[in-house]
């Protein structure tokens, strides 16, 4: 017998995307280049970006750049939002491309054409009663801030971000209530190029530059919370973390301690600063042992304490298993971070381990620690989809994945967790952030575009489209509808 779950009234069911992965039109509407525009596509992406010689230049003789075209949401947003509405979305988590609003990032006045584009998007969402959940910075900072200032290592970016955030709050104060400051902020600990805008040049200074950049983002986030509450009194501002519960490979005490340490540094350090408003006690020793000496200005710590976030949003794709000294164990990949293969879990086509119970664990761990509302704003299965001869896409594997994760959320709610909503990742197929591929598909809506850029961009409803529509219409009570 299938268990029935009760989700709260007003639960925000929907989907999530990022501007740089679906908008396209990378040189239209006065938009400046962003860091996403110089990231090459294909399975070589992470290897290229991990090297310390990446020069932030577009090199079309050697690479392809699928983000430049995305899925052309810039011109097709009405069609796509109508499909979201047909599924019954209550919410749509999206991001604003910073370089559409401030093309270089350091201008004094914004680009009106960019602001108008998002006016149109928000008006279209409002037409269908869909609540926008807006990420202010989602791996798409203006490229000029990288080249001229060195990214978030430079304190000047705090004021540029504050100006950008205030511009959004003033412009959209009657259209957007829910805001997220920095996407997957803790991901920078392992891969700083996407959100901090620099490639570490030396292992000796790597952590120093990363945590200095993160400190600047913490300050900028608190300034955004302050401004949002002043400009939009009923606004709710959240942080956004990657959350991957960290399991010990076995019960050896050294491995158990190693897992606890990894969990603290990756999952909790950034959350503690943004939610509790202060650096955790364990950070002091970690910084000392790794040669990190933060430059903290007068008033910074008071600002962090006074303006923490209102809720915690996070992405959940997989758990992570770690061992103090990996030996012959097979390693796995994942969302920015990987680990030792967990023998009890299956993996996706891209090697990301599938662990629905890990989501229940994540929700309980976060709520136990912070007692603030939670919001799952990314979760989904990247997979190869096949279009059948009759045009259908039978993605039962995606339905199975999502169903089990929604059940885990239902269990967490029964555990006492306060959960605001669920916006599954890539509700419409888009360019993968990790590999720059279209073939790694997450959506309920298929987009006819291939890795080589060919395709008609026609939208097709997958089997999961109709399944998720039913889930939303029953507020999560019926998960087995065909």
Automatic annotation (TrEMBL):
List, in alphabetical order, the Gene Ontology terms for molecular function in this entry: 6-phospho-beta-glucosidase activity
Family from the record: Belongs to the glycosyl hydrolase 1 family.
Looking up Pfam families in the UniProt record yields: Glyco_hydro_1
Q: Which UniProt keywords apply?
A: Glycosidase, Hydrolase
Q: What class of enzyme is it?
A: hydrolase
Taxonomic lineage of the native organism: Bacteria, Bacillati, Bacillota, Bacilli, Bacillales
Q: What is this protein called?
A: 6-phospho-beta-glucosidase
Q: Name one GO biological process term.
A: carbohydrate catabolic process
Q: Which domain of life is it from?
A: Bacteria
Q: List, from the UniProt record, the residues annotated as the active site of this protein.
A: 378
An example of a Gene Ontology cellular component annotation for this protein is:
cytosol
EC number(s) on record? Answer: 3.2.1.86
């Amino acid at each position: 017998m299938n268990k029935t779950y009760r989700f709260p009234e007003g639960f925000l069911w929907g989907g999530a995307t990022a501007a740089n992965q679906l908008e396209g039109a990378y040189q239209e509407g006065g938009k400046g280049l962003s860091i996403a525009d110089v990231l090459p596509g294909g399975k070589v992406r992470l290897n290229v970006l991990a090297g310390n010689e990446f020069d932030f230049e577009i090199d079309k003789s050697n690479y392809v750049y699928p983000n430049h075209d995305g899925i052309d949401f810039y011109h097709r947003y009405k069609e796509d939002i109508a499909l979201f509405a047909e599924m019954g979305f209550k919410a749509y988590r999206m991001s604003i491309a910073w370089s559409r609003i401030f093309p270089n990032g350091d201008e004094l006045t914004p680009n009106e054409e960019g602001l108008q584009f998002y006016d149109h998007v928000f008006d279209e969402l409002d037409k269908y009663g869909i609540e926008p959940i807006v990420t202010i910075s989602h791996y798409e900072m203006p490229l000029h801030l990288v080249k001229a200032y060195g990214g978030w290592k430079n304190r000047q970016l705090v004021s540029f971000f504050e100006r950008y955030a205030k511009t959004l709050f003033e412009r959209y104060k009657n259209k957007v209530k829910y805001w997220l400051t920095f996407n997957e902020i803790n991901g920078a600990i392992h891969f700083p190029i996407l959100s901090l805008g620099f490639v570490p040049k030396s292992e000796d200074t790597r952590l120093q530059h990363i945590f200095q950049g993160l400190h600047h983002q913490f300050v900028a986030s608190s300034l955004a919370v302050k401004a949002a509450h002043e400009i939009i009194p009923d606004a709710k501002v959240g942080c956004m973390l990657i959350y991957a519960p960290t399991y010990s490979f076995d019960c050896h005490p050294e491995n158990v301690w190693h897992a606890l340490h990894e969990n603290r540094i990756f999952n909790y350090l950034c959350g503690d600063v943004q939610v509790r408003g202060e650096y955790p006690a364990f950070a002091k020793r970690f910084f000392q042992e790794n040669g990190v000496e933060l430059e903290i200005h007068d008033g910074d710590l008071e600002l962090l304490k006074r303006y923490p976030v209102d809720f915690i949003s996070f992405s959940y794709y997989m758990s992570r298993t770690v061992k103090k000294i990996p030996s012959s164990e097979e390693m796995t990949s994942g969302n920015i971070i990987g680990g030792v293969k967990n023998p009890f879990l299956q993996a996706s086509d891209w090697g990301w381990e599938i662990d629905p119970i890990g989501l229940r664990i994540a929700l309980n761990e976060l709520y136990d620690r912070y007692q603030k509302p939670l919001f799952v704003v990314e979760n989904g299965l990247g997979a190869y989809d096949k279009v059948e001869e009759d045009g259908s896409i039978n993605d039962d594997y995606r339905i199975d994945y999502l169903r089990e994760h929604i059940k885990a959320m239902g269990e967490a709610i029964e555990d006492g967790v306060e959960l605001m909503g669920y916006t599954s990742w890539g509700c419409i197929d888009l360019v993968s952030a990790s590999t720059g591929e279209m073939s790694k598909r997450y959506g309920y809506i298929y987009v006819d575009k291939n890795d080589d850029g060919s395709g008609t961009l026609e939208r097709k409803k997958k089997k999961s489209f109709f399944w998720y529509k039913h889930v939303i219409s029953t507020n999560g009570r019926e998960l087995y509808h065909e």
